[in-house]
Amino acid sequence: MTPILLENQPVWNRLIRFEDVNGQERYGEPIDDDLDVGIALHRGEDVYARIVQAESALDLSAVLSEDVVQVKRVLAPLRPEEAGTIRCIGLNYREHAAEMKLTIPKTPTMFLKATETINHPSGYIVAPHCADLHDCHLDYEVELAVVIGKTCKDVTEDHAMQYVLGYMTANDVTARTHQNEVSQWDRGKGFDGFAPIGPVLVSSRVIPDPSVLQLQTVLNGQVMQQGEASDMIFTVPKIVSFLSQGCTLQKGTIILTGTPCGIGVSRNPPVRLVEGDELFVTISHGLGSLTNPIAFKPSKHNGHFIEARI
Fold it and tell me: 199: cis peptide before it, omega within 30°?
């Protein structure tokens, strides 16, 4: 069955929010449809985008111009005030449940991340304070992010895709020590900058069936996570419908849909993110890669960290 998509589709297929070489913030569409913007900028390659005349990624009246400019730095596609709420689903991949030795849940497990967690695709991930900083056990989780393009409530699973604007790569960064201190996951997953998103927002028109997406985490050249969205226990339509029951999902709401197997804490021995790591968090079909560096000294990278929250 072909899903019914958002009625008023945006003019763009792959949207980026970025700074040009003059430091001006703009919206645009990469001129190379196959380019992984995050990796290209990380390698110092030239990236160009056709300007999209818009005030927001949520602006469905945006106009695609013929003007092309060079991209200096790519920003999170949505600002925190546009997202409003980040709703997250835990334990949503069958292989991940198996590696954690947990039973398959009958209903989605939900938690929230504050909008202060939103981070740019190459912004520093700063570890929270610990008595021994390296004991906080900083961990990665590649996740598909769904962006709601039209406010909804009490939607059925069959009609859920009518409210999906598009998809992004996300990293549900987690401080395992803090997560295990309390019963609620918000603590270990809710620190500032713990939700890098982007580099690209891909229209749901381009990917009508998100189950085809492939997710990967590469740490220092080693593949740590390699999964497919088809392994999800609860599909995107199911998740959108579930979260909307009795709850208004405002336009701009970001939904993180869970992570595949291979997280650091499940490995033997456990793997921790440390300063100097090269971390690539990637999703296929044009969503691209997050390339966030790791920092254990907030004061040292404070300027970058503040920028990650605007």
Answer: yes
73 class by beta-carbon count within 10 Å (0-12 exposed, 13-18 middle, 19+ buried): middle
pLDDT at position 305 is 41
How many structural domains is the chain composed of?
Answer: 1
Whole-prediction pTM value? 0.93
Q: Is the pLDDT of residue 301 over 50?
A: no
Confirm whether 50 is domain-assigned: no
Q: How far is CA 16 from CA 74, 242, 295, in A?
A: 7, 29, 25
Q: What is the bridge-based pairing of β-strands 47-53 and 25-30?
A: antiparallel
Tell me if the bond preceding 269 is cis, omega within 30° of 0: yes
Looking up tokens 């849940």 gives: 105
Looking only at the bridges linking them, the beta strands covering 118-119 and 195-203 are parallel
Q: Report yes or no on 18 lying in a domain.
A: no
199 lies in some domain: yes
